Amino acid sequence: MAARMLASAFVLEGKSVASFPMYGFERRGAPVVAFTRIDDKPIREKTQIYNPDCLIVIDPGLLTLPTLFTGLKPESAFILNTPKKLTEQPDKNLKIGGAVNATQIAVDEIGRDIPNTCLLGAFAAATGWVQLQSLLDCLPDYLSGDILERNLKSAERGYREVEVIKW
Amino acid sequence: MVSAQKGQVRVITGNAVGAYGAMLCRPEVVAAYPITPQSEIAELLSQFKADGVLDGEYVEVEGENSAMNVVLAASVAGARTFTATSSYGLVFMYDALQETSGFRAPVVMVNANRETPGIHAVSSGQQDLISARDTGWIQIIVENDQEILDQIIMAYRLAEDYDIQLPIMVNYDGFYLSYLAEAVEIPNIEDVDAFLAPLKQQPERQKLVPGVAIGCGTHGMEMGYVEARYKHCQALERVKGKVDEIDKAFGDYFGRYYGGQIEEYRTDDADIVILASGSATGTVRTVIDTKREQGIKVGLIKLRLFRPFPAERLIGVLKGKKAIGVIDRSLCFGWKYGPMCMELRALSPEIGPAPILSYIDGLANLDITVPHIGRVIDEVSAAAQGKPYQEVTWIPMEE
Predict the structure, then answer these.
(1) CA-based angle A19:A21:A24, to the nearest 5?
(2) Which one of A45, B147, B194, B310 is least enclosed by Cβ atoms within 10 Å?
(3) Phi then psi for B108, rounded to 5 degrees?
């Protein structure tokens, strides 16, 4: 869902997008990898992404995966949900790091560990590739009422509270 | 006919697009059972019904076999119908699929392609559509979200054409397209009404009417059977030209053309041609552009119409080419070539002596990647220069 929201925000800024997740059965809590392409031109490729410009990790437990950073482009960005500081450069291809305690912010604002919108705010702040306002403007396409308000706050806090590191 | 108004652009998934496409055509009876990776379409259509956006009946069924029988019966009673399925759901309605085409009922169904039973792969692949190849349905395969929507609208115009009256299956790759969010222009419903209006100008098809006794369906022995099957096959032959006509009419009105039975990309001056279908064809185009820069004259045929098989147009493009590569996202049990390659090889006498190389790739959520396609083009190019080649390659088995 976060990947789709991100795609919608880029569409508001006139970009072409293509975003899809890969998973097996439809069930909550299952492992998911999701891909989002953003371009000025129409996007034709429909493959998974092997050489990303940015990696967003929602579950910090995945940091133990030996293949987590495989294929990153040089000077790429990394956004991590973590209660810790991001000090050491986790991979030599990383240029920008963004660390935010999105789980805590989500629990504070939404009442549950759904850190997605917070991480999108952190993404906007760390990369500067998309305006925070575009993210906020696209959320009503996905959420409404109280849960929308809570997610707007969560995204804004992600934007403000992310710790950005340049390597 | 003037042009359609600009529609609303939304970032939605292929499944959501399928639900919007169906709703815009105002089906009178919808019956569907959720299955991965199609579930969202069944959910959304029932939501449309609950919200009053969908006027037609939404029949909750206990499985896909019932879904198809419900829409078959409704269609025979004269209703416009819609259903959606995938994989296990498709094979669970196998008898009903054949009843539906045997009844000449113009049902429109989308099928989010997924691997079929035997090995429980909840993953993308076109084996399900191949398993329904000989059910008498029209089968079309699309490439992206916008094409899902546009093809559903075109599907009604085709299925309900008085000269056709056959069910049609609109196929899109599960996972790759069913879950893919892209910006899609959703036409105004009045414009869809206008595009489908010519169906109202034609003679009314025969339908069940309470109190009127008619023969319906085909209980045909001997010549009764033969005549019904012959007419069914003749109607499928007529589909080919109709698909091209409807594509042109759609493009003239909505501004988007898809090539009809097949879509060509850089084939005019090509020495070699890649035949592929579905979501992988966009990736093939990008690799073709790269290979062209390296001096390889390569083009693409995107196979849109799988049943009936667009023999004449394929021969028209491929006659005289030096070599052909076919990428199948499915396999044949009992033939070494991929299914689409096998079909194409039946045209060899008309196409000429060009080597035809069969590639099986992209099964069970494995990607048809840029390097894979690059390899295919390089090998087909070498074969065109008279070098030895392997007839059939299961790409993932060689990595």
Answers:
(1) 155
(2) B194
(3) -110, 130
Residue B46 at interface with chain A, using a CB cutoff of 8 Å: no
Q: What is the length of chain A?
A: 167
Whether B48 has a pLDDT exceeding 70, the answer reads yes
C-alpha to C-alpha distance for B61 and B187, rounded to whole angstroms: 30
Sort out which chain B residues have CB atoms less than 8 A from A17's CB and list them: 11, 181-183
Flag whether A60 is in a domain: yes
Domain limit, last residue, from B221, B254, B287: B254
User: What does the pLDDT look like over B156-184, one tens digit per residue?
Assistant: 999 999 999 999 999 999 999 999 999 99
- pLDDT tens digit string along B201-241? 999 988 888 898 877 766 778 898 999 999 999 999 999 99
* Domains: count for chain B: 2
Sheet containing strand A94-100, edge to edge, reads A54-57, A76-81, A94-100, A163-166
Residue of chain A whose Cα is closest to the Cα of B178: A20
Single out the residue in B209, B229, B254 at which a domain terminates: B254
Contacts of A16 in chain B (CB under 8 A): 183
**Which of B11, B123, B173 has its CB closest to that of A24?**
B123
Give the type of residue at B185. E
Residues B209 and B273 in one domain: no
Instruction: Report residue A11 as tokens.
Output: 């569409």
Decide if B285 touches A, using CB distance below 8 A: yes
In this complex, is the C-beta atom of A21 within 8 Å of any C-beta atom belonging to chain B? yes
Q: Write down the pLDDT at residue B1.
A: 61
**Interface ipTM:** 0.91
pLDDT score recorded for residue B206: 86
Q: In angstroms, rounded to a whole number, what is the distance separating the alpha carbons of residues B216 and A54?
A: 60
Chain B residue numbers with beta carbons less than 8 Å from the beta carbon of A38 are none
B104's CB contacts (< 8 A; 6+ apart) are: B165, B166, B232, B235
